[in-house]
Amino acid sequence: MPPSIPELAAATVAATAAAGALAYAALSSQSQLFGPVLIAPPRPSEIALTYDDGPNDIATERLLEVLARHQVRATFFLIGSFVRQRPQLTRALAAGHLIGNHTMTHPWLAWQSAARIREELSACNKALEDTLGAPVHLFRAPHGARRPFVLRTARELGLTPVHWNIIVDDWNPHPPEAILANITRGIAHNQRRGQASNILLHDGGHTAIGQPRLPSVEATDLLLHQHTQSQTKFVTVDAWI
Q: Which terminal CB of the chain, N or C, has fewer other CB atoms within 10 Å?
């Protein structure tokens, strides 16, 4: 006997719910369903500034100046192909900041083959290690997209997966004040929840070196000025491992 309409409807609802759960597990920065990722501990006075998609001419260099002026260390997740093109800038970052793996070419890892996933992570590790002369221990998946094999491969390579709990849409053309407002709202939200803030910003763009990220740099400067007299402690994400 063929299934009844209610049975078909129930099956459709179940399939939709399962697909939604898988999408959440693969793409939500907060999800731990596919395995543990580092986000932020219950330390509401702490903030980690993290930057993806560099190294990037002009923006990364200006950002280094801003961070040095405020005596703040940040965490940078670098694209391996850009590291190969800008080794001196990569070494300048590593001289004062924490460096992590952001894959070799920035693909959506959740939908890649096992071989491609392993190659993206291991090739970026090699680019960083060849350039810096030391291993790296952190990994952020492009777009946050992962599946269990992505996280398992990262750990096999000695990498701790890191996500975020504030994202500010700074890859789109927003003025610094709008980026700062998004950051400030996110910090207030996390503090109400008793959590530290792990802020995702961008000093580069995955399509090419030379992306216009100066608004993100200026927003960083505004944020640090805003917290000059506060009890906020800026940390790198390894403080939370």
A: N
